[in-house]
Design brief:
136 residues; single chain; two-stranded antiparallel ribbon; alpha+beta; 26% helix; three-stranded antiparallel sheet; disordered N terminus; GAF domain-containing protein; Beta-Lactamase; GAF; GAF-like_dom_sf; globular
């Protein structure tokens, strides 16, 4: 995908993507109401880090859905523009210190438009019952 001058390659899909999706759906957490425990996590992360935005993001086949969020109004975004998708596919933390200067993310609509992301820190959510990463 090309957004202006920066090439933002989509994260490469893993060969076990269909199995990951099956596990994610079995977890029955997608599209559930907000819960205080998750909300407390993002509030704490935002306060401790000083970042205005913190999320618990789960990535399905087409979108990233936010189980909890602070500093972001929308409940989900397309997987195509998701920073979290790169964490899911690589199963490794991702740190982007300057999204405006990053070769993959500089023209990402989440950087150039609302919410105006400037940096990103994502850590994989891998439940103990599986090796699949569900989000970040």
């Amino acid at each position: 995908f090309f957004f202006g001058l920066c090439a933002m390659p989509p994260a490469r899909r893993r060969s076990d993507e269909s199995e990951r999706m099956e596990w994610l759906r079995k977890g029955a957490i997608l599209d559930t109401p907000q819960e205080k425990e998750y909300d407390d996590i993002v509030q704490t992360l935002s306060r401790v880090s000083g970042f205005p935005m913190a999320l618990v993001s789960l990535v399905d086949d087409t979108r990233q859905w936010f189980k909890a969020r602070t500093g972001l109004k929308v409940p989900e975004t397309s997987r195509v523009v998701s920073f979290c998708d790169h964490v899911v596919e690589n199963r490794k933390p991702l740190i982007v210190l300057n999204a405006e200067a990053h070769p993959f993310f500089c023209d990402n609509p989440l950087v150039t438009g609302e919410p105006g992301m400037r940096c990103y820190i994502g850590y994989p959510i891998i439940p103990p019952s599986t090796t699949h990463c569900f989000g970040s």
